[in-house]
Amino acid sequence: MQFLHVPPNHIISPMFPADSTLVDLLQHRATHQPQQLSYVFLTNGETEEITLSYQTLTEKVMAIAAQLQAMNLQNERALLLYAPGLDFVTAFLGCLAAGVGAVPVYPPQGKQPLSRLEAIAADAEAKIVLTTNNFLAKIKQYFSETARFTYLTTDSLDESLALQWKQPNINSKTLAFLQYTSGSTGNPKGVMVSHGNLLQNSANIYRGFKHNDNSRVVSWLPHYHDMGLIGGILQPLYGGFPVILMSPSSFIRKPIRWLRAISRYGATTSGGPNFAYKRCVETITPKQKAGLDLSSWKIAFTGAESISSETLDQFAEAFAPCGFRREAFYPCYGLAEATLFVTGKVLTKSELRSQNSEVREPNLIRVDSEALQQNRVVVTIDETVKTQKIVSCGQPTSDETVIIVDPETLLPCSPEKVGEIWVSGASVAQGYWQQKEITEATFKAYLADTKEGTFLRTGDLGFLHDGELFVTGRLKDVIIIRGHNYYPQDIELTVENSHPAIRPNNCVATSITHEEEEKLLIIAEIKRKFLQKLNLEETITKIRANISQNHGIQTDNIVLVKQGSIPKTSSGKIQRQACKQAYLEQNLPTIESLQVFKSSPHAPSNLIQWLRNYANEHINSRLMDERRCIPPHIVLDFGNQGLLGMQVPPEYGGLGLNHGETMKVIEQLGAIDTTLSLFVGLNNILGIRPLLQFGSQALKEELLPMLATGRELAAFALTEPSAGSNPQAITSSAMPLSSDKWVLNGTKIWSGSAAWAGVINVFVQQKDAQGKFQGISSFAVRRGTPGLKQGPEALTLGMRGMVQNTVYLNNVPVSASQQLGDPGEGMKVAQDAMMYGRLAIAAASVGGMKRCAQLWHRYSSRRQISTGRLLDNPLVLARLNGLTAAITTVETLVTSIAQLLDQGQEVPIEAYTVCKMAAPEFYWQAADNLVQFLGGRGYIETNIAPQILRDARVLRIFEGPTETLTAFLGSRLIYQPKGLKRLLRDTLGVPEIYEQLQQTVEQIQYYRKSPFTEATKTKHWTAMLCGEVAMWGVLLAVLQAKAIATPLESLDRAIAWTKEHFQQKIAQGFIKTPDELVISSANKTTELIADYETAIGDIEQTLAGEDRELDELLRKQKNGEIREYSAVKKIERAEKPLSEEDWEKRGVIEDWLKNWLGKKLNLSPQTIDPKRAFADYGIDSVMAVELAQDLQEWLGHTQELEASLAWNFPNIKSLAKYLTTVASVAEDEAVEEILSMAEPEMMSAIKNASEEEIQTAISQEMAELESLLKGGYQR
């Protein structure tokens, strides 16, 4: 067990009893040291001084406190908004003297967001803002007019008010201030620090630093940060010695100012984070060093971020001529939750007095790097082992106890293990303000075995060695790749050293999940002076190569950003998690990037803005509708903008958008024109997605560049005259000609864009030579292939600008290279595309609904009726507000699913089903209401609304009619509830809704009397009822999950609206509908309708319409029926590949290496340069082993190849040359087999299902629910 507690020895006793306060301390100083200098502030960072004695300080503090007491603010919170200076010091102490909780916050600068300031003010429930006169007007602009603050300018108070001050009713447990840590903007965490915490921690610092009456402090650290406030302002007050303060910006602009202040005032204590020392080394010139005397500097503390031994070495060497001694370095560890100070370098009295080299330098050890990645500590001096240096952070004072604990098991770690640092003692703060659950989890931890506690869980990782603490990183920042732990600060240092253009201390190493695997992400700032002349590709290559060589990790994403882009805390610490989030949301000002996967090279915002501008000037929806055609300029322009290949990787010419971005673009298209949204969606999803997800590498390289840029379009042919969306009824077939060649025969109908397409994804029954069914298969068929014929166009109600036509397959030859997915498993391809298509339809519906709301509001706000403005009519307001709630609901559903997909999580079929059920129905209602409330204008074609209504109507049918899907969802809930259970309980975290759904199902089945006597119809009817309830349950769950993460008023409104619908649907499940009361049998119904013939006749119009046929005398031949082809002409096999003698061995091996590397790195083999090293492409140690193994197998080499093969040769070409001398290249067929790289792994759980499962799921959903309902399933 790693346990560290230092017994009290040679420790200075605290000067005040345990129940004292900071107010007692201030009064003590004013009484015993009234004229002594307490604070000096350098207004220009150099010589201009403002000073305060203890007496003057106390008078100013008591005046402020008296004013706050007069305003009855004791036990309230006050926001302190000050520029650096002594006004802050007096205001902070004034709050404490009045019993008011101080909340120090630095005013936003420049274009910094105000959201965090507003969030802190709201969380703290601050009643007053303290500031200065020259800041007041500016500060009032920070807050909205609704903010109920009182403002007090403390620099203009009459100091005679001090006489009215009264001793507040406070003690050591009273809240002194709230220290807001660097949490998220939406959820700030205020650490509650008491007077007792401050006094105890001040005593610990006093003892640890061996301060005395002759100590002097210089501090540039931020006043509102724990290190600057407690270490720089309160520690000198505690010790009774002066401090010289300056603004942080004074140091940042000219670091020499810090050292000159130390030299001028003979400071004994000063310090800062690691970057401060590094900045001095990099910016202070030899000329500036002249005259510096740093010999008085005894304690050069460093902490708050990772401590670099290299930085300490560089600083000590650079300033040794100025009298600085390396022994002065005082590494320490602390955190706001422990007030500030926890551990520091142990000093003896003899060391402190000594001026020679015998004084102990900071302790430093070397540990085995690979062992550390596995949380093991192996101290070594073996130079042949890869090691890293870690600087000790010393020991705790007598008040503190430090232990190392396994963060998962909560058991103490053995000495050779890395674990979480836990702390206990009187300095540990009281918890987080008004956050009980987080406080319990963080501040009240117990050991699992002994139940010893309570401890503070710091979230930091480290270990104890020889009684000293070594910190290795943050628990939440650790990068875990293939089971090994990598500390971001180590990788960030490697990145900084890769190129002089990279800004020191401005790099982020983190990880993001892709396909359930952690991948490395690097974000680095580039110095401004390098922007114009920097070779960005070379810089990225060097970064990738350095990381590969030093850490053995493949770097998947490297992003270079502009200076000042990386988010930091108020104290200058890099916020890795915030930076990662900005990257994922495409909010980083990227200069250049290497992106192997997922994240988009193009933010969608520019594309969306282009669409809005383009729609205003170049799109006429009515003309498209009337002419039944999308104009060529739109198709060409969309192709040039990348809209037709949104998710195609950039190496194939696409935009590489992720799922969330793609849905935002489709939403925008839906707002412009529903037809265009479906046209673009069809090409991207039904056309390109099957190729992208299931096509071979060769097929992708052949087709994607053309499709992504719009040079050709793609279509999807599944539906047949007798097969709707039911794959079981497909009759189109693929008959074999040979082992890898077939001919296709059949007819497909209603295939969108097929007449315009250069590629059609066709689904057929694959049969063997005896005609035996082997499963449904899919093939990508090119335009111009013999036997592929375009049939007549269907004249549709809506979506008239987009062609829907028949496709004839008459002995169409295809080969294995055109097959999508495995033979007989084409329904996986169809299922994947159709599920994603449902998500896209929902996104387009959101855009359409928003457009309806805009038009409806615009009209009703202008239209006057007898009672006044139409918008003020109660029914209009009710319907319009219901529409806004529906929009929020569906939009949340779409964004939530897209986010899950971008995170690599599984999305069950039920979620896509709800998308398709809810969104088109809500859109249709919005369109119908728009037409209705426009009155007569709604029936006029030129007023947009009629076309919107017609276009919206088909969405209720596409990709499965609402009624069919409702029964399908209900049957899943009743008989196969696992998917919904996983979605609601595990993914969304709302198990109570799932439980309510299950209870409703049981009650409906038990109590609900069916109007049908047959069991099958009863089950079908029950499934319909349960499906409606399930849809609203899923919508409510998505909203509630989102509201927990992001509380918004719009979500609250949508939740209330959805919850009421949910409860009403549950109630309706037990009530007979009017239709049920009059249900008759099918025969009786037929008789009823047959009687109508007597009343109205049986009318069928036969008068000829327009003659569209070519004159018989002008035809090439007479029209005839499209006949079925029964004879199949065998197509000869292609000739065999070249024989081995025709191959140049070296070229073959080179090609193999390029293909292998391309597959592993998700790159096109054509982009692999054989003259570059493997390291340049970021190959890691695991991949190096795989390469050796795969090479050995391919070459047929009996002797094992070295695992380090990739590192032993300068480039790919030289390795190929070496292998040529030792390899025996395989025979023709083996070469052909291996050179055709394996297809990418299927991402989703759907793709891992068997063909039978897929076909069953679709048949259940689309057309054969009866078969499901007859048999049922075991729950």
TrEMBL record:
PROSITE patterns: AMP_BINDING (PS00455), CARRIER (PS50075), PHOSPHOPANTETHEINE (PS00012). Its cofactor is FAD. SUPFAM superfamilies: Acetyl-CoA synthetase-like (SSF56801), ACP-like (SSF47336), Acyl-CoA dehydrogenase C-terminal domain-like (SSF47203), Acyl-CoA dehydrogenase NM domain-like (SSF56645). Residues 1144-1223 form the Carrier domain. Keywords: FAD, Fatty acid metabolism, Flavoprotein, Ligase, Lipid metabolism, Phosphopantetheine, Phosphoprotein. GO terms for biological process: Actinobacterium-type cell wall biogenesis; fatty acid biosynthetic process. GO terms for cellular component: plasma membrane. The keyword Iron does not apply. It holds the Pfam family PP-binding. The keyword 4Fe-4S does not apply. InterPro entries: ACP-like_sf, Acyl-CoA_Oxase/DH_mid-dom, Acyl-CoA_Oxase/DH_mid-dom_sf, AcylCo_DH-like_C, AcylCo_DH/oxidase_C, AcylCoA_DH/ox_N, AcylCoA_DH/ox_N_sf, AcylCoA_DH/oxidase_NM_dom_sf. GO terms for molecular function: adenylyltransferase activity; flavin adenine dinucleotide binding; ligase activity; oxidoreductase activity, acting on the CH-CH group of donors; phosphopantetheine binding. It comes from the Bacteria. Belongs to the ATP-dependent AMP-binding enzyme family. This is AMP-dependent synthetase and ligase, probable acyl-CoA synthase.
